[in-house]
């Protein structure tokens, strides 16, 4: 269960074993409890209890699978900066939510209100998708050439 970004979170006090567990899960989210226990030097029941505690504290919000969009035919990624026209903020947000090619969207400060990531099968899709947004907003698009730093955990301090 994902916690909304606006929900205040109390920082968890993580010890060395908690950090090792999180790093191991980030490396292989399908690792068994017994494998995780072996990696961190605990028994399986102790490891299970730590995982439950980390879930309860909201440190672990869920378990997921990482899919390579290229394997599904998405050959391009784009980053789109979106500046809604006056009075259109909430409508633009709803439009972006309804377009499945938008896989991420952040509401940000500054001139643009949203920065979104979308996956495309071809460059031809871009105008078609953005037309749904540009009725209510100005957009600026950059095609992603490479990802030198993929999404990763913040430092586990």
Protein model, in words:
- The chain is of the alpha+beta class.
- Helix 2 (33-40) crosses helix 3 (44-56).
- The protein has two domains: 16-56, Winged helix-like DNA-binding domain superfamily/Winged helix DNA-binding domain (Arc Repressor Mutant, subunit A); 69-143, Lrp/AsnC effector binding domain/regulation of amino acid metabolism (RAM) domain (Alpha-Beta Plaits, 2-Layer Sandwich), CATH 3.30.70.920.
- Strands 2-3-1-4 form a four-stranded antiparallel beta sheet, covered by helices on one side.
- The protein is elongated.
- The mean pLDDT is 92.
- The chain is built from five helices and four strands.
- It has helices at 16-27, 33-40, 44-56, 89-98, 124-134, and strands spanning 76-84, 102-107, 114-120, 137-143.
Short synopsis of the structure:
The chain has helices spanning 16-27, 33-40, 44-56, 89-98, 124-134; strands spanning 76-84, 102-107, 114-120, 137-143. With 157 residues, the chain is an alpha+beta fold.
């Amino acid at each position: 269960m994902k916690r909304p970004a606006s929900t205040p979170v109390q920082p968890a006090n993580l010890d060395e074993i908690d950090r090792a567990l999180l790093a191991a899960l980030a490396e292989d989210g399908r690792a068994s409890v017994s494998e995780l226990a072996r990696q961190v030097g605990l028994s399986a029941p102790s490891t299970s209890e730590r995982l439950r505690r980390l879930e309860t504290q909201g440190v672990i919000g869920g378990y997921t699978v990482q899919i390579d969009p290229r394997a599904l035919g998405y050959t391009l990624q784009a980053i789109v900066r979106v500046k809604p026209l006056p009075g259109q903020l909430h409508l633009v947000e709803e439009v972006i939510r309804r377009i499945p090619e938008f896989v991420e969207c952040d509401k940000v400060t500054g001139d643009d209100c949203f920065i979104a990531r979308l996956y495309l099968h071809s460059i031809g899709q871009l105008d078609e998708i953005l037309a749904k947004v540009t009725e209510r907003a100005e957009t600026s698009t950059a095609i992603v050439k490479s990802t030198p730093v993929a999404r990763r955990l913040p430092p586990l301090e």
